[in-house]
Amino acid sequence: MPSRNGGERCAVPVVLIAASAIAVLVAGCGSPSATTGPSATSSSSTASGPTPSAANLKPALTGLLDRNGAPPAAYVASLGGFVVQARWSDLQPSPGAPLTSGNAIDGAITDVRMLNATHHLDLGLKIRVLAGIWAPAWAKDLGGTPISLINPQNGAEGTVGRFWTDAFGSAYDHFVSLLAAKYDSIPEVREVTIARCTTFYDEPSILDTGYLPNDTALLASGFTDSADEQCQRQEIDAGAVWQHTHSDLALNPYQVVNSAGAVRTDEPFTQSMMQYCRQKLGLACVLENNSLRSPPQASYLTMYASMQALGQPLAFQTATAARVGSLDTTLAYAISLGANSVELPGGYESLGTADSFASTTRALAANPIA
């Protein structure tokens, strides 16, 4: 992701701290308010469930991952798995319908099993659920007409639904429950992303703010920061239906919608969501960031330190090949943060050898998972 201006942040040293330091983090950065703390009540109850037991979890993904599907043959043995992109609109095109058969996830499971059998490996899958502009039309229509937005990064246009409302939340919860019922017991499916409160990217803290037409469109549709903060908690709650599979929460400095189109981020809120995710989902919660590069963005350093302090499981995706800088340095930084897995940029074959990536995969796998 491109660089973004940072908001108010507390100073947390970039050192490895045990996961038990959650309370220290909150004390140092300011405790979240009653509306953002883990005791807040979720009005979206269809996906409520017990905290997944660490003893019942499948292994988290480790090593390097291909973010665009099955890796090229020459790199299969150098990676730890790959990502399957799963659009909600493709998986559930009509309301209340079951998941479509023969979908992208089904195809990826077939592919990974074939690769594992052929190469005697244990590659795993991450399901990247895509909601936001990839939500089905019927979900975007809940509560009003779809909201038109423009991606400030590339000018692309798209529409989203009122993802912060109870009606949309209930639809998303039902969708997630269908996914869990079908895939939670599949050994190769190791992780699934949290995606309800998203727009263009599978990153809930990025609301495409600082672009006045987007802010105006959201506010005119009933969006408020408090409603979105509740949405952020509820999408984590929905992950409790996955009792054997890890849920990945993509983190960025939280963007605040401003009626004047000003850019502001709320770093303490991002930290409160890290804490909430771990309290709600336990070690099933993978803290993830999809913006890693060399040098790292200054506005992200506090967040990276907080992730490191809360401990594993941790996952990263690098920036694109054009923006990652030195891929070797970026991967070394991920290892130093304690990352368990890293998604490589597209075109990684031209950026490193199979042997060098295999070495990095081993180093990532050597990082402990609490």
Provide tags for this entry.
single chain; 370 residues; alpha/beta; TIM Barrel; 11 helices; 12 strands; disordered N terminus
Structure explained in plain terms:
This protein has eleven helices and twelve strands. It is α/β, with parallel strands linked by helices and 370 residues long. It has one domain: TIM Barrel. Helix 9 (301-310) links the parallel strand 10 (285-292) and strand 11. Helix 5 (166-183) runs parallel beside helix 7 (225-238) and helix 7 packs parallel to helix 8. The longest helix has 18 residues, at 166-183. The relative contact order is 0.19. Mean pLDDT is 88; it is low at 1-47.
Separate helix tally = 11
CATH superfamily: Glycosidases
Rg to the nearest angstrom? 19 Å
CATH T-level fold name: TIM Barrel
Amino- and carboxy-terminal Cα gap: 28 Å
**What low-confidence regions span 5 or more consecutive residues with pLDDT below 50?**
1-47
How would you write the strand order of the largest sheet? Answer: 1-2-3-6-7-10-11-12
- Average of per-residue pLDDT values: 88
**CATH architecture field:** Alpha-Beta Barrel
Q: Judging from the principal axes of the Cα atoms, what is the shape?
A: globular
Count of individual beta strands: 12
How many separate domains?
1
What's the helical proportion of residues? 25-40%
Main beta-sheet strand count, sense and barrel state = 8 strands, parallel, barrel
Q: Would you list the SSEs in sequence order as H and E? A: HEEHHEHEEHEHHEEEHEHEHEH
CATH class (first level) name: Alpha Beta
What proportion of the residues form beta strands (DSSP E)?
15-25%
The oligomeric state is: single chain
**Which class do the helix and strand fractions yield?**
alpha/beta
